[in-house]
Design brief:
By secondary structure, the chain is of the alpha+beta class. The chain is 11% helix and 12% strand. The chain is built from one helix and two strands; from the N terminus they run E-E-H. A two-stranded antiparallel ribbon has the order 1-2. It is rod-shaped and about 85 Å long. The protein starts with 37 loop residues before the first strand and ends with a helix. The relative contact order is 0.19. The model has no long low-confidence stretch (mean pLDDT 79). InterPro entries: BSH_CusB.
Length: 73
């Protein structure tokens, strides 16, 4: 056992630390589209990957959404 004298010191207002942000995997939900479509491409992502704002996760082809745009009247 070691003994030491107690001293007061000022502590910095901010602390820089590293870590990993994770989510509770039990709260995963399945999202369903309200339109028919096909998943054309899924970007390979793994738990722990860093995802930037606006980064695509999947490409979905939805013919119902593109049909009116392609029709000639």
């Amino acid at each position: 056992m070691r003994l030491a004298h107690v001293e007061r010191h000022a502590v910095a207002l901010s602390i820089d630390a590293t870590g990993v942000l994770a989510f509770n995997e039990r709260n995963i939900s399945i999202e369903q589209a309200r339109s028919n479509g096909f998943v054309e491409r899924v970007w390979a992502l793994a738990p722990g990957d860093i995802i930037a704002a606006g980064q695509p996760l999947a490409e979905v082809l939805t013919p119902e959404w593109t049909l009116p745009r392609n029709m000639n009247f």
